[in-house]
Structure formats: C-alpha cells, structure tokens
Design brief:
This protein is of the alpha/beta class. It has 13 helices and nine strands. A hairpin with a 4-residue loop joins strand 6 and strand 7.
Length: 373
C-alpha cells in the first residue's frame, strides 16, 4: 500500500503562516561584534549591501512567503565567509539549509549583475595619474596603472568527463584573471576560465586583452603576473610605441613590445634594480587575492572546495570580487585579513631564439637605462 508523503516547507514549519515577508532576524537586536564575527562585515556595510541589492532580491523572489532582503544578504555573507551551509548559521537567522542555498543563489546573481559597476578600469586622466603616483611610492616603478595575476580556485570535479578543469597541479579548479591597483582595488576580474588553461592562453583569450589592444597610447607592463603600465613617452627610445600601455609579465611569458618581462639572468645593477621593482610591485596582486581568500573562506582551497558546477563556482568567485571592491570603496581595509603564505616561483618560458622580439628587447633595455640606472 502506497503511503502518501507531504512535502512541507521547512521555513513554514519554523515560522508558521503570517506576513508576506519573513523578517526572521533583527539586525538591531545584535551587537556590531556579533555581525562582524558571524558575517565578516560591520553593520554599516551590511545595511549598505541590503539597500544596494534590495530591488534585485525583491524582484527575484517569486515565492508567496518571501524571505526579506536583509536575511538573504546575511545568509549569503555567512556562506561566503564560512564556506558552508551550517545548520547553526541557518538557526542564527531563522531559515532552513535549503533556504540558505536559495538565498546564496539570489544574492550571488544580484552581485554579479553589479560587477560592471564596481569592477572597471577608470580612464579618467586624473585618476590614472593618481594611480601612477600610488604605485611609484611602492617601489619606485614609474607610470604603473595596475598589476595582473591569474589564480586558481578549487572546485569539485564536474559531472562530465571534461578534463579541461584539471590544472597543472592535478586538481579541478576555475581560473581567475585579476588586475588590481596599488590599493588592492580590482580593475578587472574574469573568473570563468577552466583551470587547465595556461595563464598565457587565458590572457590571449580574455576580454582584458581585447580591451587593451584598443588603447592607443601607453603600455602595460607586468612581472610575475603583474600588469604595470608605463608611459613609453618617458623612454628615450627611437622606437615608436604602438600604444601607451604594455603588459608586464613574468618569466612564463614571451617578451613583446606590449609585454615586458623580467630579465632572466640580470648582470648589471640596473637590471637587478629593475627586477626588484617588478617583484615588489607585483606582490600587491598576490596580497590582494590572499586577502580575498582569507575573508571569503568559500574560496580557500585549504579549507575544502566549492561544491558546485564550474559555472556557479565562477559566479560565486565574481560575487566575492564585487564584495571586495564594494568594501574597499566603503572605506574598509583590503589587507586586514591577509594571509602570509610563501609565494610560488613561476616556471620560466622555454622560448626559441627565433621567436624573440628584438624590438621588445630594445624597449626593455631603454626602460632599464632610463629609469633604473
């Protein structure tokens, strides 16, 4: 004999019938320290997020008994900063684990919709000049606009037999190409790359690469994955730059006119100084991602991995990047939660002599002569 089973809403069991919107958790009833400990952010920032996302969260909620935007934001912050749908977290804000999952999905989508508002290059001349000055104070490298890195976030193995997400270390991950300024503010974040792609392939396929190809003046430089912008107008070179920006990449990248790399075997004091300036400036992007991982423990591979598809994991990663920038722009410190893990040394690119760019080598030589001698 078949036994009928009633599927009940866990939230309905907890709270019964009543108002259309369930305000299960009163922000005013808890201390500032409790909010910071449980949800990773101070009260003022949480309230700011609620208002920022309110319209999107209310629009997305179609259930007859909607969870308030306040509770949805707290649920998502609780997950981002702890990395798990713990029963205790749901009990704290008065919702079930299933509702926690729905809230994280809603808030993640709402934050991803805001990505272009919070993560963007500012091409305003005065802002660019300010960035140059801030970077120059770090290690004396002139004309720097941003630093670039490609990082990996561990995820569960996709259901398919797709091996493209297996990275060089043998685990599944999504790759994220980040660019940040001297304060750790993200200027670009592309979080959707399969972990099996080489960093050079990610760069060549990225929207950032296309964007920079369209810039007419200046150049972007990088070191151990840094993108450092240095005005070629300051170089005493007879070569005319094709743009005002040039990528600066580490030894994993080929030297090009738009991609400055460290000197492989420095000999002169100027070459050593050039490499040291690169390293000191590049550390900013490493510190930035370490701070993001420490604040948002769902991204910290040492604590476990994201239990989602690559697509959803990429969205969660981008949502955390948006929160990072939003918190910085609200006056919070980027480095408060920074880890101090040792940096990995990149593997050198094995490049054939015939593939070397002689004009790029001359540009680097002039750069070192002009600014590091």
């Amino acid at each position: 004999m078949a036994i009928p089973i009633a599927i009940l809403d866990c939230d309905l069991l907890l709270h019964g019938r009543g108002h259309k919107t369930l305000d299960r958790f009163d922000l005013d009833s808890v201390s500032d320290n409790f909010l910071l400990t449980q949800f990773g952010f101070p009260r003022e920032f949480i309230l700011y997020l609620v208002e920022l996302l309110r319209e999107s969260l209310c629009r997305r909620t179609q259930r007859s008994r909607a969870i308030s935007p306040e509770v949805q934001v707290l649920a998502a912050l609780g997950f981002y900063t702890s990395g798990s749908f713990q029963t205790s977290m749901g009990d704290t804000i008065g919702i079930s684990q299933a509702s926690m999952s729905r809230c994280v999905s809603n808030v993640t989508r709402a934050l991803v919709e805001k990505a272009s508002q919070f993560i963007t290059f500012n091409r305003d001349p005065s802002s660019r000049e300010q960035s140059f000055q801030e970077f120059q104070r770090v290690a004396g490298f002139p004309g720097v606009l941003g630093v670039l890195d490609c990082v990996q976030v561990t995820i569960k193995a996709p259901n398919s037999e797709d091996s493209s997400y297996v990275n060089k270390k043998g685990f599944h991950s999504v790759g994220c190409q980040l660019v940040c300024d001297a304060r750790g503010l993200l200027l670009s974040a592309e979080t959707h790359w399969p972990g099996g792609l080489k960093d050079t392939d990610v760069l060549e396929r990225s929207a950032l690469h296309k964007q920079l190809q369209d810039i007419e003046e200046g150049w972007l430089l990088g070191e151990t994955w840094c993108i450092i912008l240095l005005s070629l107008k300051k170089l005493s070179s007879g070569l005319k730059p094709f743009s005002d920006f040039c990528f600066l990449g580490d030894c994993r990248y080929p030297l090009k006119k738009w991609l400055m790399t460290p000197v492989d075997c420095p000999e002169s004091p100027a070459e050593f100084q050039y490499n040291l300036a690169h390293t000191a400036t590049h550390e900013i992007v490493d510190r930035t991602f370490r701070a993001i991982q420490t604040r948002f423990r769902c991204l910290d591979g040492t604590k476990g991995y994201l239990q989602y598809s690559p697509e959803r994991s990429s969205s969660i990663l981008l949502a955390c990047c948006v929160l990072h920038n939003a918190s910085l722009q609200s006056g919070l410190d980027a480095w408060t939660l920074e880890r101090t893990d040792p940096l990995e040394q990149p593997e050198s690119l094995d490049q054939r002599p015939e593939d070397r760019d002689s004009q790029a080598e001359e540009l680097r030589k002039q750069l070192i002569l002009k600014h590091f001698s």
